[in-house]
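Researcher: Quick test of sequence recovery. Tokens follow.
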């Protein structure tokens, strides 16, 4: 009886392997195509974040955007999509095909993650996470990533101001939430 039970279990598990197999992630192109379609329909811009499962700052960025104090402001102004890059060898299957090439195309390959891009609804690049304020000094051109310190957050707020309909009060709420990342 034990042999029959074992054989039945073995056959079930081997034949149902596909039930437990993970689907291949969508390509970066497919994700962007869908995001632009939603952005056109909802008259929003597209915020693309390059991230990885192991990246603590990536998780902080998501947590900040999803925070109840400012989530609505992001949802009302942006179609937000994630592209997985730079996973460890045992998690390479999580990466979106074409995401690393896209990150390189927009000069994010030496910037660390999270690295983000903002596009208009037609796919025109409006901004990226590289700081460019005239007062940045040695930080000019560096990735603001998940904004935390005062310069990073002020840069992020300046980008949001240019790429959204957020008012000063809403931007101040976002500013305060992101400053908590430094603590």
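Model:
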């Amino acid at each position: 009886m034990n042999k029959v039970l074992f054989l039945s279990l073995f056959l079930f598990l081997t034949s149902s392997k596909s039930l437990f197999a993970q689907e291949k992630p969508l390509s970066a192109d497919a994700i962007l195509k869908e995001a632009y379609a939603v952005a056109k329909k909802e008259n929003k811009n597209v915020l693309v974040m390059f991230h990885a499962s192991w990246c603590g700052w990536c998780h902080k960025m998501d947590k900040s955007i999803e925070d109840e104090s400012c989530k609505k402001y992001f949802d009302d102004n942006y179609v937000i999509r994630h592209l997985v890059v730079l996973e460890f060898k045992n998690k390479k299957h999580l990466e979106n095909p074409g995401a690393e090439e896209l990150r390189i195309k927009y000069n994010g390959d030496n910037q660390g993650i999270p690295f983000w891009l903002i596009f208009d609804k037609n796919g025109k690049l409006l901004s990226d996470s590289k700081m460019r304020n005239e007062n940045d000094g040695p930080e000019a051109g560096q990735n603001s990533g998940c904004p935390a310190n005062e310069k990073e957050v002020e840069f992020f707020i300046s980008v949001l101001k240019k790429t959204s309909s957020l008012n000063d009060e809403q931007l101040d709420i976002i500013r305060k939430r992101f400053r908590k990342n430094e603590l």
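The radius of gyration is 20 Å.
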